Amino acid sequence: MESAKTKEHSRADGSAGVPPAVAGASRPRATMLATLIATFCGIGRLHPGPGSWASAATVVLWAAIAHLTHPPLRTPLAISLALLVTLIGIPAATRAARAATTKDPQFVVIDEVAGQLIALIAVPLAWKTLLVGFILFRAFDIIKPPPVRQLEKLPQGTGIVLDDVGAGIFALVVMHLLLHFGLLR
Fold first, then answer.
1. Phi-psi category of residue 72: left, alpha or beta, with phi > 0 → left and psi -120 to 50 → alpha
2. Can you list the alpha helix ranges (DSSP code H) found in the chain?
3. How many Å apart are CA 66 and CA 77, to the nearest integer?
4. Would the pLDDT of 3 be above 80?
5. pLDDT number for residue 21
6. Are 111 and 137 spatial neighbours (Cβ–Cβ below 8 Å)?
7. Of 64, 76, 105, 112, which cross-links 100 as Cys (Cβ 3.0–4.6 Å)?
8. Structure confidence by residue, pLDDT tens digits, 26-39
9. How many C-beta neighbours within 10 Å does residue 49 have?
10. Does residue 14 fall inside a structural domain?
11. Is residue 6 part of a domain?
């Protein structure tokens, strides 16, 4: 049975359990841009719960952007931002995870940004909906119902980001059901 330390240093080159300095290979470094994206401008370094900090920052940032956006353009803008964050987040998360030599480092939070944006697509701009969207996304991200848990197993940044995209989709569906049936006004 592998220890946590052994798992932390598992490498693609087969030197599992051996820290990179001991294995004779230098650890790859993430570029400054990849690190800024992966950590959402450093928010991923906040403790406790860097994912929750990133989700909260995303909600606040989206509320500000949406407030300044003409209402009919909010939904296409939210979709575009979620897609953009997902597409740039996957390679950034891959580079950051490789540099950290862990599968899904806690400081990589660009996945929470993507998932949280998805949870807020076509949601009315009100404090209740923003709060419920935050809670739903965090709950689905933590619980990871099927098939979200399976998405986590995809390789590198793809798995890091797409499991949160899945959690965001679950949150979006529940949010719109709550809105449709008048349980959230």
1. alpha
2. 4-8, 20-23, 32-38, 50-67, 71-100, 110-119, 127-143, 148-151, 156-180
3. 9
4. no
5. 44
6. no
7. 105
8. 667 889 999 999 99
9. 13
10. no
11. no
Task: State which residues form the domain around 100.
Answer: 47-180
**SS3 of 43, please?**
helix
pLDDT in the model for residue 17: 41
What confidence score (pLDDT) does residue 24 get? 43
Helix (H, G, I), strand (E, B) or coil at 109: coil
Provide the token pair at 160: 């890091």
* pTM score: 0.84
Integer angstrom CA distances of residue 85 from 18, 28, 60, 131: 34, 23, 16, 21
**Cβ-contact 18, 5 below 8 angstroms:** no
Quick check: 15 pLDDT over 90? no
Asked whether residue 100 is domain-assigned, the answer is yes
Residue pair 89/111 in contact by the 8 Å Cβ criterion? yes
Averaged pLDDT for residues 130-154: 96
**How many domains is the chain built from?**
1
Contact 43, 57 (CB under 8 A): yes
Token couple for 86: 């997902």
Residues 6+ apart with CB under 8 A from 88: 37, 110
What's the whole-number average pLDDT of the chain? 88
User: Rounded to whole angstroms, how far apart are CA atoms 21 and 115?
Assistant: 35
Q: Distance (Å, rounded) from C-alpha 103 to C-alpha 68?
A: 38
